[in-house]
Inverse folding.
């Protein structure tokens, strides 16, 4: 599809066949590695959409608008605008009123791997705290997700209270 979008490959309706410039295609240095191709393609996204999808990748394959907006400290309307652009690019699909999922696990992986390791740990801890805070009485339904985020971010925990909370979450998840 991106070859057609760039004009390097096109369908001639009058000739009823595909037409291409072989030299232009060879100059592209197309890789057999789909992940590398996706990494290159994602860099063409507007910075706000790219940032939004990286944050969503931390949440998981499926994510909710409210959690994503809160985790990135953005307004839901602004976040929704970024998600709509990502849907138009087919990186994610809408699966409910306020729920989305990545089109493929490899797509999520590409966005997730673009986040520096130290930022991932902070993001996961922040997500774990946010989901815990928003779970209220329904914590049991989210306990594994909450504990997973806290455990992923455990290296950036500095307070004794957070260490105790992590212990309690792991005990509850067990």
């Amino acid at each position: 599809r991106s070859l057609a979008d760039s004009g390097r490959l096109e369908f001639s309706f009058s000739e009823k066949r595909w037409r291409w410039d072989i030299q232009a295609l060879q100059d592209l240095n197309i890789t057999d590695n789909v992940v590398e191709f996706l990494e290159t393609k994602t860099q063409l996204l507007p910075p706000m959409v790219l940032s939004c999808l990286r944050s969503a990748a931390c949440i998981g394959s499926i994510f909710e608008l409210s959690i994503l907006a809160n985790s990135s400290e953005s307004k839901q309307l602004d976040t929704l605008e970024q998600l709509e652009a990502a849907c138009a690019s087919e990186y994610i699909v809408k699966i409910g009123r306020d729920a989305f999922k990545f089109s493929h696990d490899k797509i999520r992986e590409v966005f997730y791997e673009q986040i520096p390791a130290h930022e991932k740990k902070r993001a996961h801890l922040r997500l774990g705290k946010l989901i815990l805070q928003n779970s209220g009485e329904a914590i049991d339904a989210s306990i594994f997700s909450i504990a997973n985020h806290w455990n992923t971010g455990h290296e950036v925990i500095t307070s004794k209270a957070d260490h105790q909370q992590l212990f309690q979450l792991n005990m509850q998840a067990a």
User: Anything to note?
Assistant: The radius of gyration is 20 Å. The longest strand covers residues 9-12. The beta strands are 9-12, 17-20, 62-64, 92-94, 99-102.
